[in-house]
Every structure is written in structure tokens, then in C-alpha cells.
Design goal:
heterodimer; A: mainly alpha; 13 helices; B: mainly alpha; 3 helices
Chain lengths: 223, 92
């Protein structure tokens, strides 16, 4: 387990950890030796209690924010295991899985598709992430994956702008397709979702299937 | 005088500034705790450690630094006061 912890250590994380160890060493040596409170001691302690912990916090923040973009971060909540399992499945032909196999998405495919783009997009995405954690702790933590799968849904319809980061809708090859050409205005304005049925379909179709199965069970049989 | 009464002396003791050593010790303890929390998120980047590190860990670290700066300020004030008192001519 300890080996696994160090395996996923990034460069920023390593710097944060090195600074934390150095600061802790200074503090522990001071506590053990208790030297006179001279100017030299004060400066050493300033490093141990101020400078090095601040560097640790800075690099730790960078490492933490970077980690929040990774697929394995999303899959640390059990309710996401179906989604991340599908995304990492090489045999899966779902829209999300096919995109995740693209090197441009890599290990950050959840964030690449679901982040809010724009000036404060990263901030709003992190705030939404906090809302996810709140809902997880309040509602879904004690539920099984089978129970939660039909209930999971997006806060708002998936924005075409996320798709259009790569598929700009201006490429001639894209426009040569009749379906694209006839719907280009609706796609650009967001009236017609790229991931709607009849177009490219849901990115995570199994979640829709689970919801449909739940709804079918909820409808009472007509005698 | 009112300042010589036992109640005011007790009140003065109650509101006496903490010692420099106590402040530095508290700062050291809090810093060690904050470093542990911040390192936890680096080694185990899952939602709970990352959130705890970025909120509780950094808040404790900031308080520790403020505590240390207060200790240094207090120490300098006491040193200056002691120097001033020793330089003042004694009245017979």
C-alpha cells in the first residue's frame, strides 16, 4: 500500500513532501534540544514553521488540484465505479470509453469532458466537485452501486461547448455530413445535444439503461 | 490604589500574556499536525484528504505561524523592556 502511495507521487507532490519532512526535522530538533531563543534559532524556526510549510502548502495545493482531475480520483467514490470502469474498459464502445482511449484525454477524461470551460471554469468545476462530495456524504455513501446508478444525473444538460473544444463544427469534413450540416445552428447554440438519442447517444449508456429499468419496475402492470 | 487590590492582581494574572516558550511550543505542535495533514493529501489524493489538507491543514499551519510570529514579537518587546529598565538610573 505504501509503495502504491509513492508510485502515484507527482513532481509537485515530491517537492511538497520534501519540504514537509525538512520542516518537521527542524521543528523536532528544536523540541528535543530546546536551544536558547537567539536570532539564529528564531531564523531556523522561521524556516521550519513558516517558509517550508508555506512551500509545502503551495506545492501540496498544486498536487491536490492536479489529482482532482484524474480518473482514479473520481473512482475513489464507489458510486462512480461503473462510469470509470467503463471508461477504462478497452472493449467498451461507449462514447466516453472511446474518447478516453484518446491520448488527449488520457487519465483525465472525466475532467476533460465535464469541466466547465470559460474564464472561471476551473473554479466552478471545483465548487461543483464540493457539491458532489456533499451529496455523496449525505445521500449516496450508504447506498450500493446498483441503487445509486439509476439516480445519478447531471446538474444541467451536458453542454455542447465541451465537445466543441475539439470538434469545432467548422471543419469541412464535419460539415460534409448531412446530419451535421442540417443541425449545425442548433448544435452550436446548444438546442440539440451532441449526446442526444438519434445523434451520438449517451456517453454513459449503462446509466440510462439502469434508469429505464428502474422506471419500468415502477410502472404497475395493467391487469 | 485599585491596582494593588487582590482582585485586580488576580485579574491581571488571568489576562497575562502567555510565555514565549509556550507560544513557540504550541506553534511547533500545530505545525507538525498541519504538515501531517498536508502530506496525507499528497500520498493519498482522494477527496477527503485533499479537502482536509486544503482547509483544516492549512488553517492550523497559518495559526501556528501567527503564534510563532507573536512569540517573536513578545520576546523582542520583553528584551527591549528589560534593556530599558537596566539602562534607567536607579533612584535611592
Amino acid at each position: 500500500m505504501i509503495c502504491r502511495m509513492f508510485e502515484q507521487l507527482t513532481a509537485t507532490g515530491a517537492i511538497a513532501l520534501a519540504c514537509a519532512v525538512s520542516a518537521a526535522l527542524i521543528v523536532v530538533v528544536y523540541l528535543l534540544k530546546r536551544p536558547a531563543f537567539t536570532l539564529a534559532t528564531q531564523l531556523w524556526l522561521l524556516f521550519g514553521l513558516g517558509v517550508l510549510p508555506l512551500i509545502t502548502a503551495g506545492f501540496g495545493n498544486a498536487a491536490g488540484l492536479h489529482a482532482t482531475k484524474e480518473v482514479r480520483f473520481c473512482s475513489s467514490c464507489h458510486v462512480m465505479l461503473a462510469h470509470t470502469g467503463d471508461v477504462l474498459d478497452l472493449d467498451s464502445q461507449s462514447l466516453a470509453a472511446r474518447h478516453s482511449r484518446n491520448a488527449m484525454f488520457g487519465e483525465q477524461s472525466c475532467y476533460t469532458c465535464h469541466a466547465d470551460y470559460g474564464m472561471f471554469g476551473a473554479v466552478f468545476t471545483k465548487l461543483n466537485g464540493m457539491t458532489h462530495v456533499y451529496h455523496y456524504l449525505r445521500t449516496y455513501r450508504k447506498k450500493t452501486l446498483e441503487e445509486t446508478l439509476p439516480e445519478l444525473h447531471l446538474y444541467k444538460p451536458f453542454a455542447n461547448a465541451n465537445c466543441m473544444q475539439c470538434h469545432s463544427t467548422t471543419n469541412r469534413l464535419w460539415l460534409n455530413l448531412d446530419d451535421h450540416a442540417s443541425a449545425v445552428d442548433d448544435v452550436r447554440s446548444g438546442k440539440l445535444s451532441c449526446a442526444s438519442e438519434g445523434c451520438h447517444g449517451s456517453a454513459h449508456p449503462f446509466s440510462k439503461a439502469a434508469r429505464a429499468a428502474r422506471d419500468a419496475r415502477a410502472i404497475p402492470e395493467v391487469p | 490604589m485599585a491596582s494593588d487590590t487582590p482582585s485586580s492582581a488576580a485579574r491581571a494574572r488571568r489576562f497575562a500574556l502567555p510565555s514565549v516558550a509556550a507560544l513557540v511550543k504550541a506553534a511547533c505542535g500545530a505545525t507538525l499536525l498541519s504538515l501531517v495533514l498536508m502530506s496525507w493529501s499528497v500520498l493519498d489524493p482522494t477527496p477527503l484528504p485533499v479537502m482536509v489538507s486544503m482547509s483544516v491543514g492549512q488553517a492550523i499551519g497559518t495559526l501556528a505561524l501567527l503564534s510563532y510570529l507573536a512569540a517573536v514579537l513578545l520576546y523582542q518587546l520583553r528584551v527591549r523592556r528589560a534593556r530599558g529598565e537596566s539602562a534607567r538610573p536607579r533612584q535611592e
